[in-house]
């Protein structure tokens, strides 16, 4: 067994994402297989306890995806039919889907163009007597404007539900994301800052909420065959949790690597007029799930980078309210511009310094063409 992880690369060029899994993850899975206890068991409990150390000791409940974490978090704080939940339209569809799947209505509002997260003044303007919750997304690993949003939620008696799917270990004024809301949801999908294969986790402000999430996760049961409420099977398996425990130990070093990569990218790109580098809000410690620039000529620059062997991503080309599943005609100008301009450059910790420098050189070349 070696402590140096194997790097799984999607191709020999500079990949947009990189999944770091190695001998330790394999050994952890083998250990669980050998135990014969494959479904939710002691590995899940240990993973929850270990994750809790990163979110101020709050109770954590691991589930089978980030979407499940959002859905169960919303249900546990009482969101349901007839309610409205304020969400950004500039996010992954799962943000709004989780709301809609409770029977509540997602109310899409605009973002702050500086950090791509919910604009507190737009949130304030969207509140009605049916509003039950506000769901900020810490997009790209940058914390949303939690100070203002916490004040708004408190003033109107609303639940704050954090979509922290992309923001493991991010913080604002020294406080970790996941510890602001009544509940917060993390994702462990392979492209996230850490993975369990598929998986998610709900962080809860109190034990009572955590108990409701645990019931919802497991058919409404705490004791076997004593089903108290209607529930799902959204359990995490011990196989996934064992991988997550290894990844969680590595996450702080990977986060530092992402920060260093982001620093090199910003240093190399900030004086290129054609590219707007990401701006960090005062007090924010982002974790660079994505390093996202704005380029008005985005599609041409992305095609040029592709030719140069630098893979990029667009998160997200279509605002959620414009997707066929919602198809709403809303005027969200900052969202519309962001969707047409954003371009995410490779920033993940599997990159070498030479690859990061190649990204900088590639962008300089692409915008000059
Ligand atoms: C912002 C956001 N919310 C929710 C999710 C859903 O997570 P999962 O894919 O684990 O269900 C994701 C990730 O895919 C995401 O990026």
From TrEMBL:
Keyword Translocase: no
Highest rank taxon of the organism: Bacteria
GO MF: transaminase activity
Classification via Pfam families: DegT_DnrJ_EryC1
Cofactor(s) it depends on: pyridoxal 5'-phosphate
InterPro entries linked to this entry: DegT/StrS_aminotransferase, PyrdxlP-dep_Trfase, PyrdxlP-dep_Trfase_major, PyrdxlP-dep_Trfase_small
Keyword Transferase annotated: yes
Keywords associated with the record: Aminotransferase, Pyridoxal phosphate, Transferase
Annotated signal sequence range: none
Family under the similarity heading: Belongs to the DegT/DnrJ/EryC1 family.
Protein name (Swiss-Prot/TrEMBL): DegT/DnrJ/EryC1/StrS family aminotransferase
Originating species: Actinomycetospora rhizophila
